[in-house]
Amino acid sequence: MDVVVIGGGPAGLSAAIRAQELGLKVVVVEEGRLGGILPQCIHTGFGLLTYGEDLTGPELAHRLINSYQGEVLRGHAAGLEYSYHRKRVRVITEGGTVTLEAPTVIYAAGARERHAHEIGIVGDRVAGIYTAGEAQALMDLYGVLPGREVVIVGSGDVGLIMARRLSLEGAKVKAVVEMLPYPGGLARNLMILRDFNIPLLLNHRVVEVRGRGRVERVKVVSGSKEEWIKCDTLLVSAGLVPRVKLLRRAGAIIDERTSGPLVNDRLETSLPGIFAAGNSLVINDLVDYAMEQGRIAAEGAEEFIREGGIPSQDWVKVIPGDNVRSVVPQLISPGREVIAYVRPSKPLNDATLTLPNGRVRLGVIKPSEMLRVRVKAEEGGVAHVEIQG
Ligand SMILES: Cc1cc2nc3c(=O)[nH]c(=O)nc-3n(C[C@H](O)[C@H](O)[C@H](O)COP(=O)(O)OP(=O)(O)OC[C@H]3O[C@@H](n4cnc5c(N)ncnc54)[C@H](O)[C@@H]3O)c2cc1C
Questions:
Q1: 28 CA distance to ligand 1 centroid (A)?
Q2: Is the CB of 140 under 6 A from ligand 1?
Q3: Which of 77, 138, 359, 382 is most buried, most CB within 10 Å of its CB?
Q4: What is the pLDDT of residues 273-320, one digit of tens each?
Q5: What is the fold, at CATH topology level, of the domain defined by 313-389?
Q6: Above 90 in pLDDT, residue 204?
């Protein structure tokens, strides 16, 4: 075996497909269903950049699953042991624990959702509080409507998409509550609020839930103003956090800005031969980028095996400057043009991105829209990436 891929979502499957194309022997470890989050995302908007087609999540999942001809091990990867040439992945399966051994691992375990208690919402412990992903799985995998009168926390794409799904299924979305002064989602998803006549409360926060057995009302505050909104369901869409437990335990360095592992331009973590891709590397708003990262990681794994390691070099350190929340990769090879994913920290109307290899006029930018750019830096030094408004 050449590579163990942890996670069979779009990033992991893309990594596995590319690794097979490159002649590697692959096993994908998946604890749930292949396709990751895709099978429960029944809306369109997937694969536009990769295929030039507007696919639903299940359609894209189907395409990826059919393209991968290799082995899949059903089970939970619960341990990752590291040495330079050998990695061991301990997998808990229905039939018992299995240990896989390979020179490389591609870690593509996706992300977890932030829950109500993580964003300071207090009150009664009642039924009817869901994360967006939990509510989506209930509706689109199991055919259960999670509630009838819903308040949504968070105006990112996931929250907006859920506002539409709930409205289409007959629920009343009473408000989308956003603590920032601007909405989080892509422009195309913001149209949903207008289409379904849903109020967007900017600069507002849900702070408390009350009910007996089930949610009955939530308290919303803005400055010194507060009001109670009657509802039976609170849906929390307050962002995703890369799932990095195994990487962290194995000793990988985690970047505070992305909450994912620090990587070089092959997407290799600080543990040589262990690569990362998709939402466990950095939260991607577009599945196309998660899939691309899977392919880059697979090419890195092939190089690692062919060369006996990624050539050690004087990595150029990428420094996020003004208006840049994060950049992945954090280390790049001198003289090599590489793909970088840049997350702006605030919305700007007429933005220009400054890279070591030049300036790019961006126009309107938002933190919800990750930028994909080509970066090249010369030997010796650091690569500053900044955005001017
Ligand atoms: C509600 C929602 C709507 C979205 N809409 C769009 C859209 O319209 N267009 C678009 O381009 N993108 C969209 N996205 C973003 C896109 O879906 C993600 O970027 C993409 O799914 C990330 O892929 P991934 O493979 O990194 O993670 P995931 O899809 O989360 O897959 C990770 C996989 O790893 C498995 N796993 C985790 N830990 C382990 C372990 N220890 N052992 C074994 N298996 C494990 C999980 O079971 C899962 O199958 C949306 C995302 C969400 C949540």
A1: 15
A2: no
A3: 77
A4: 999 999 999 999 899 999 999 999 999 999 999 999 999 888 999 999
A5: Immunoglobulin-like (2.60.40)
A6: yes
Pick one of 3.50.50.60, 3.40.50.1440, 3.40.1350.10, 3.40.640.10 as the CATH number of 1-113+239-310: 3.50.50.60
Distance 59 CA to ligand 1 centre (A): 14
Query: CB count, 10 Å around CB of 277?
Result: 34
pLDDT digits (tens, 9 = 90+) for 104-160: 999 999 999 999 999 999 999 999 999 999 999 999 999 999 999 999 999 998 999
pLDDT in tens, 62-78: 999 999 999 999 999 99
Closest-CA residue, ligand 1 atom 26, reads 278
pTM of the model: 0.95
Range list of H helices, 38-195: 48-51, 57-67, 132-140, 157-168, 187-195
Q: Closest Cα to residue 31, out of 77, 70, 69, 81?
A: 77
What CATH number should be reported for the domain whose range is 115-238?
Answer: 3.50.50.60
Q: Which atom of ligand 1 is nearest to the CA of 283?
A: 19
Domain boundaries, the chain: 1-113+239-310, 115-238, 313-389
